[in-house]
Amino acid sequence: MANHVSAKKRSRQNKVRNTINSQYLSKFRTALNKFKASVEAKNEQDIQKSYSAVNSIMAKALKKGIFKKENISRKLSSLSKQISKK
Predict the structure, then answer these.
(1) pLDDT at 36 > cutoff 80
(2) What are the φ and ψ backbone dihedral angles of 35, each rounded to 5 degrees?
(3) Radius of gyration of the chain from Cα atoms?
């Protein structure tokens, strides 16, 4: 347990940030699963909607510092390849 005031504050901040980061990761995973389902179903409109949703969520996560830029570009590239393969 933290003894200093600053360490106690840091502990509180970490708990809050952890819940926020978990929410972003959960939104990302949900959107990614919807994208994969639409690719398997080969529904063109759903694919575009879900791809833009994943892109938006990942951009917001990048802005918050949850993902790194290289990670996002690699994942989006992989998703766009899945679209072109179908």
Answers:
(1) yes
(2) -65, -45
(3) 17
- What sign does the CA torsion over 86, 51, 66, 71 have? positive
Residue 32 has a CB neighbour count (10 Å cut-off) of 17
Alpha-helical runs (H) found in the chain: 5-41, 44-64, 69-85
Instruction: Specify the pLDDT at position 86.
Output: 67
Q: Where are the domains of the chain?
A: 5-85
CATH superfamily, region 5-85: Ribosomal protein S20 (1.20.58.110)
Q: Which long-range contacts (CB under 8 A, 24 or more apart) does 51-54 make?
A: 51/79, 51/80, 51/83, 54/28, 54/79
